[in-house]
Amino acid sequence: MGCLLETETLYGTDVAATILDAAHELDATAIVFTPRSANRWLKLLSGDVERKLLSQADRPLVVLPRSDQET
Question: For residues 37 and 6, what is the distance between their CA atoms, to the nearest angstrom?
Fold first, then answer.
């Protein structure tokens, strides 16, 4: 039994909305992402993408841990 994995490079001003729209258009069975580390001010200014995905996704989310290099 195999698993088909597709990746896309997306561009948009609202990152969460762009990801959710693409998932809908591609009829994705899940959304997989690694959250960026950001302080509260950065999240406030840029929008909390992780929170938007968690609250607005209509399909399963798989959150991967950040690697040691990204901390």
Answer: 24
